[in-house]
Amino acid sequence: MDPGPWTPDNKYNRSMRPSALWKNLPAEKRLIAATAFWNDEHGVEQQVEVIVTIARKLNFRPKSVPSLPIERRAKLLAGMDDVSDVVASRALIAYHLEAERPMMGAFLDALGITHDNGLITAEDVAAPDKARLTEAVRTLKTTFPADAVQLYLHTLVLLDGDTWANLDGLINPAA
């Protein structure tokens, strides 16, 4: 079942896969995420996957795609609805690290989790309790745009459902 376009008004869908979340991102966020994806030095494997896909679509040789300007590669990726979960996950991570670090840092600060500019520094992080998460989410929702908060929280649960399982019930705008 397709959950329909992703907006801050949509209900949180725990069964949604990263590729579906990508597909339903607004075009402007998808372009920012695609640009961040190409700038991500940790996403080489996923970049190769996208290079091969773009080469097939454009009838190019794969070695020609990296020579395209990053703006063109980003636009091509942003226009792809059918990315794998691995590519979507990497793009969502890159998006948040590039565009949403202040929100990530504020959230981790509110939870008392040690981080470096929004990036968790500890190897293992225990799942935060519901009360602390509730307060941290409330802080985010009063400080940052609703769509950004919902996307961030949804991404956390999709990519690390064990650690962030207690976010269930807190992601939707009314929560």
Total count of helical runs of at least 4 residues: 8
Please report which band the strand proportion falls in: under 5%, 5-15%, 15-25%, 25-35%, 35-45% or over 45%.
under 5%
Q: SSE string, helix = H, strand = E?
A: HHHHHHEEHH
What Rg do the Cα atoms give? Answer: 17 Å
- Topology, number of strands: 2
Strand arrangement within the widest β-sheet reads 1-2
Shape: elongated
State the share of residues found in helices, binned by percent.
55-70%
Largest sheet: 2 strands, antiparallel
Q: Low-confidence stretches at least 5 residues in length (pLDDT < 50)?
A: 1-9
N-to-C terminal Cα separation, in Å? 24 Å
Class by alpha and beta content:
mainly alpha
Average pLDDT, all residues: 90
Quickly count the domains: 2
Give a written overview of the molecule.
With 175 residues, the protein is mainly alpha-helical. It has two domains: 17-87, no CATH class; 100-175, no CATH class. The chain is 55% helix and 2% strand. It is built from eight helices and two strands. It has a two-stranded antiparallel ribbon with strand order 1-2. α2 (27-39) crosses α4, α2 (27-39) crosses α5 (85-99) and α6 (101-111) runs antiparallel to α7 (130-143). The longest helix is centred in the N-terminal third of the chain and has 15 residues, at 44-58. It is elongated. The relative contact order is 0.15.
SSE arrangement:
Layout: H1 18-23, H2 27-39, H3 44-58, H4 70-78, H5 85-99, H6 101-111, E1 115-116, E2 119-120, H7 130-143, H8 146-159
Antiparallel strand pairs: 1-2
Helix pairs in contact: 2-4, 2-5, 6-7
